[in-house]
Amino acid sequence: MRTSRVSFVALGIGLLLCAAGVIAQEKADKKHTPDKPKVTNPGFEKLKSLAGEWVRESVQEGADAKPEKKTDDQVAIVYKVISAGSVVMEHLLPGTPHEMVTMYHLDGPDLMLTHYCALGNQPRMKAEKSDDANKIVFKFAGGTNMDPAKDGHMHDLTLTFVDADHIKAEWTYFEDGKKSDVTVFELKRKK
Q1: What is the dotted CATH code of the domain comprising 42-189?
Q2: What is this structure's pTM?
Q3: How far apart are CA 141 and CA 155, in angstroms?
Q4: Residues 6+ apart with CB under 8 A from 137
Q5: Phi first, then psi: what are they for 22, rounded to 5°?
Q6: How far is CA 153 from CA 53, 62, 78, 97, 184, in A?
Q7: Three-state secondary structure readout of the chain
Q8: How far apart are alpha carbons 17 and 166 in whole angstroms?
Q9: Which of 1, 51, 141, 166 has the fewest CB neighbours in a 10 Å radius?
Q10: What does the alpha-carbon distance between residue 83 and residue 111 come to, in Å, rounded to a whole number?
Q11: Percent of the chain clearing pLDDT 70 (strictly above)
Q12: Average of pLDDT values for 162-180?
């Protein structure tokens, strides 16, 4: 009989400890997911709609160059919505020596990006306010591992949403504090 009483007491203590653990986990979850209202941004919602794989239709490197057709099934960009919908990750040129990542997110109401460049620097850009729902223009807002007055870096990005399955990305490169080059990717959604 004594053994049964000890078992019941141990079982009761175990259940109390489990309940305390569940309550502590719920409190920790609430701490990491506050109940504040979500800020919406039409540009960010457009970026989320890009989730999936994209292939190049053409690439134009340099202002005077003609677009070079590149249509094939090789994935040029993968967009993925991550971090509970708070970040859009762009994986550019996956599996190549020049693969890069750009992370798009909100900072309050502002749409921001950080580009993790193959050059080893990380420019940040902020989207300008616009009345054009099919275009997002990002302008340089600082960065790390660079002196923007002299080091080469991506400085601006214009994304144009042609339709649900076609986009155009225009990356502006700066060097020695001024515009040096523009690379234009015309992309289509891989089906």
Answers
A1: 2.40.128.20
A2: 0.76
A3: 9
A4: 127, 128, 130, 156, 157, 158
A5: -65, -45
A6: 26, 15, 22, 18, 16
A7: CHHHHHHHHHHHHHHHHHHHHHHHHHHHHHHHCCCCCCCCCHHHHHHHCCCEEEEEEEEEECCCCCCEECCCCCEEEEEEEECCCCEEEEEECCCCCCCEEEEEEEECCEEEEEEECCCCCEEEEEECCCCCCCEEEEEEEEEECCCCCCCCEEEEEEEEEEECCEEEEEEEEEECCEEEEEEEEEEEECC
A8: 55
A9: 1
A10: 16
A11: 73
A12: 97
Mean of pLDDT values over 174-187: 96
CA distance 87 to 84: 8
Show the CA angle centred on residue 178, arms to residues 88 and 78, nearest 5°.
Answer: 20
Task: Return d(Cα 22, Cα 175) in angstroms, integer.
Answer: 55
Query: How many whole angstroms separate alpha carbon 150 and alpha carbon 178?
Result: 9
How much is the average pLDDT of 72-80? 85
Sign of the CA dihedral running 155, 161, 162, 165: positive
Token pair for 146: 């660079």
What are 95's two structure tokens? 């599996």
Residues 81 and 121: their CA atoms lie apart, in Å, by 23
**Going by C-beta distance under 8 Å and a sequence separation of 6 or more, which residues neighbour residue 16?**
none
Residue 104: both structure tokens together: 């798009």
CB 80 within 8 A of CB 88: yes
Rounded-to-integer distance, Cα 140 and Cα 181, Å? 15
pLDDT of residue 15: 44
